[in-house]
Amino acid sequence: MDDLIKSLGYRYLQETKFDAQTLGRTPRLAIAPAPPFKRYAEAVTLPLPTDWVMEKSLHETLQYRRSRRRYGEGPLSLEHLAMLLWASQGISGRSGNFFFRTAPSAGALYPVETYLSVRDVEAVPAGVYHFQPAEFVLERLQEGFSGDKVAAAALGQHFLAEAGVVFIWSALLRRNFSKYGHRGLRYVMMDAGHICQNLLLAAEGLGLGACPVAAFYDDQLNDLLDLDGREESVIYLAGVGLKE
Ligand SMILES: Cc1cc2nc3c(=O)[nH]c(=O)nc-3n(C[C@H](O)[C@H](O)[C@H](O)COP(=O)(O)O)c2cc1C
């Protein structure tokens, strides 16, 4: 026990437990919410296609998914990229002002934003993009290959520089913390897990290879995306490419 207690994670888990005595009596933290969608209004946008199909069964997809770190030569198709974005964070339903997505999210707050470092995707020049699910478009933030910087930031995991595209997920904390306070971090990380698993399964379903990555120098990636690392910070990555 004494050793576990040294861990911040352990203390966080203990201090954010719900129990019947205190639930509802803990004062809510005064944290202002954030808009549900982040937009780069000045960015050039690239519309994404919606006419794709996935043929593999869920059974096969679950059976054969593996973390794949070696990729074949050649571009990913734009349809495949669009499908991966839709599978991970696409809008799949609406109720009043709420838009629901393919991956579940605590309180339907969707605190996770998706960025892409594109190396080799048909009709998408190499660059850094932000995914805008409301309009189903990419917003271009930077031109040129950045996979080498992503790989360097990911503790030198070179396969990320060889992926056709790297998904970079950030957490926009106040979207969730405004409702869930101290407990919110649990949910943000769960949201990210759902999103990444949807991506990994969609990649397998499309015959692509993908690998999740959580080992990285956070602020190197925040700098690449021009995020402040406080309001919004990178939390997870996944490389995707053609299967070798
Ligand atoms: C939260 C998380 C972080 C991970 N981080 C890395 C990573 O930084 N680099 C890497 O090569 N694989 C990473 N992986 C992939 C695991 O190594 C892989 O899932 C595990 O070995 C099981 O193999 P499988 O995914 O092929 O079933 C990560 C997986 C998860 C779920």
Beta-strand portion reads: 25-35%
Count, helices: 8
Low-confidence runs of at least 5 consecutive residues: none
Please tell me the overall pLDDT: 96
| Total strands | 10
CATH class: Alpha Beta
In CATH, the topology is named: NADH Oxidase
Query: What small molecules accompany the polymer chains?
Result: flavin mononucleotide
How many domains? The number is: 1
Assign an overall shape.
globular
Radius of gyration over all CA atoms, rounded: 18 Å
Helix share of residues? 25-40%
Measured between the Cα atoms of the first and last residue, the distance is 46 Å
Helix and strand string, N-terminal first?
A: HEHEHEEEEEHHEHHEHE
Q: Can you walk me through this structure?
A:
- There is one protein chain.
- The protein is an alpha+beta fold and 244 residues long.
- The chain has one domain (4-243): NADH Oxidase.
- The protein has 8 helices and 10 strands.
- It has helices at residues 8-15, 58-64, 78-89, 147-153, 159-162, 173-180, 184-205, 218-225, and strands at residues 44-47, 71-72, 91-95, 98-101, 112-118, 127-132, 137-143, 165-172, 208-213, 232-243.
- The strands form 2 sheets. Strands 1, 2, 5, 6, 7, 8, 9 and 10 form an 8-stranded antiparallel β-sheet that branches. Strands 3-4 form a two-stranded antiparallel sheet.
- Strand 6 (127-132) and strand 7 (137-143) form a beta hairpin.
- Bound molecules: flavin mononucleotide.
- Flavin mononucleotide is lined by residues 66-67, 69, 157, 211-215.
- The site of flavin mononucleotide (FMN) has 9 residues, from strand 9.
